[in-house]
């Protein structure tokens, strides 16, 4: 038989190349992983500095309960910053000041008068209920050193614990090996095909070529029934999608614009449990819920110039929230260092989210006060929203369906007593829906 070449030697060379590259990749990975496995990590938690005469842990709890409304550790609020206060004043004087600062000032104590005048002459609330041991605990908490912010990685250095592939083979090594194997298989298939053709040619075997077949598109065009069915299907599908598109004109469900000042309902209504009607007080008495005045924000934020560490999320950092509060201060002209207004204000151009058509009438007070509808019914679980969005489609169908399902609350609502007695007999029901009481009349919403 005729010789067809040394294809076996080529295959051996390819296998040897694959083995060599895999061994080099694994050895390089082992060299990279070895230092990480043998390195001795620094102690995760260092022992806190000892505070004589008090428990810092208990002090933090007492501080957050009694002092945090007016004081911060490292920034001035209504009162001065309290970090290291134990080193500034004698304990005996601090006891008297905390128990009743007003009496201490009236007694003519020079130090008390100086502190009082340095803080805009704002009197401090008396805490006679705090024992000297409680005050010692607070002092111990204020004497703790401020935790240093973690240093940013330098020169592309990876932060320990952030590599998702730690403890296993690198994804790049695995992908590289798979690509190499696929390339070798393709080369081997080409070589085998060439060898088989040479063997067939040497033995006088003719390779039968496949007969050309008609194109599927040509066959489809010749079948008139399939063409007719396809045209009808495309026309119906097109009409369906065009109808759906036009029905969504003016529907802005899930619309969530970026506001000039980031406001998190998750923090305010969720974590802090602030009632919706506190900020949107107009919803109880008027047609529109209204945009809360910035003065409402400042009722709390005079003393809240930064958020707690637990407020931050993976998407929004503590620094981000603190900068948004700074925008609020700039808008109202609040000087947090001196705790007073500067008189320089800037308007905040909020972006409207819920916007009904001009020919639609909707009254918040009628739904909130009379009907007792919860805010979440129309606005969704706002207490979970980081960025407020339009929850409901606010279409006519959506409103009509709500009127058909919602029963009118009669308890303590004398306005509807007489009409309820008449209509309940007419419809033979105990409770009426909004639709049965005229909620589907056109003039209710369009007049």
From TrEMBL:
One of its GO terms (molecular function) is heme binding. Residues 54-146 form the Cytochrome c domain. The chain crosses the membrane at residues 173-192, 225-246. Pfam families: Cytochrom_C, Cytochrom_CIII. It comes from the Bacteria. Keywords: Electron transport, Heme, Iron, Membrane, Metal-binding, Signal, Transmembrane, Transmembrane helix, Transport. The keyword Disulfide bond does not apply. Residues 1-30 form the signal peptide. This is Cytochrome C.
């Amino acid at each position: 038989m005729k010789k067809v070449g040394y294809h076996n030697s080529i295959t051996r060379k390819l296998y040897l190349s694959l083995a060599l590259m895999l061994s080099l990749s694994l050895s390089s990975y082992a060299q990279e992983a070895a230092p990480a496995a043998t390195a001795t990590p620094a102690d995760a938690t260092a022992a806190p500095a000892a505070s004589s005469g008090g428990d810092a842990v208990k002090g933090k709890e007492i501080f957050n309960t009694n002092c945090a409304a007016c004081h911060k550790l490292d920034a001035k609020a209504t009162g001065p910053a309290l970090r290291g206060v134990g080193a500034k004043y004698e304990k005996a004087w601090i006891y008297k000041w905390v128990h009743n600062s007003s009496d201490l000032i009236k007694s003519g104590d020079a130090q008390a008068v100086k502190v009082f005048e340095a803080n805009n002459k704002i009197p401090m609330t008396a805490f006679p209920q705090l024992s000297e041991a409680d005050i010692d605990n607070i002092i111990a908490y204020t004497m703790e050193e401020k935790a240093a912010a973690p240093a940013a990685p330098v020169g592309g250095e990876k932060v320990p614990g952030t590599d998702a592939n730690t403890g296993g083979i690198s994804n790049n090594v695995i992908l590289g090996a798979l690509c190499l194997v696929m390339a070798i298989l393709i080369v081997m298939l080409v070589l085998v095909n060439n060898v088989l053709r040479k063997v067939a040619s040497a033995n006088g075997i003719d390779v039968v070529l496949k007969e050309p077949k008609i194109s599927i598109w040509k066959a489809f065009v010749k079948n008139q029934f399939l063409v007719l069915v396809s045209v009808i299907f495309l026309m119906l599908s097109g009409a369906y999608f065009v109808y759906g598109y036009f029905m969504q004109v003016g529907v802005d469900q899930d619309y969530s614009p970026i506001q000039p000042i980031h406001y998190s309902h998750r923090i305010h209504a969720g974590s802090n449990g602030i009632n919706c009607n506190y900020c949107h007080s107009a919803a109880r008495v008027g047609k529109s819920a209204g945009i809360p005045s910035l003065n409402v924000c400042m009722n709390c934020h005079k003393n809240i110039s930064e958020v707690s560490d637990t407020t931050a999320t993976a998407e929004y950092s503590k620094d981000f929230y603190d900068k948004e509060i700074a925008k609020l201060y700039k808008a109202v002209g609040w000087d947090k260092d001196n705790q007073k207004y500067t008189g320089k204000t800037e308007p905040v151009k909020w972006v409207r989210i819920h916007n009904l058509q001009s020919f639609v009438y909707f009254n918040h007070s009628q739904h909130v006060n009379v009907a007792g509808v919860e805010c979440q019914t129309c606005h969704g679980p706002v207490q979970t929203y980081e960025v407020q969005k339009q929850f409901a489609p606010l279409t006519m169908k959506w409103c009509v369906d709500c009127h058909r399902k919602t029963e009118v609350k009669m308890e303590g609502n004398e306005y509807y007593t007489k009409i309820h007695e008449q209509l309940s007999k007419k419809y033979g029901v105990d409770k009426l829906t909004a639709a049965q009481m005229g909620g589907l009349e056109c003039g209710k919403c369009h007049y």
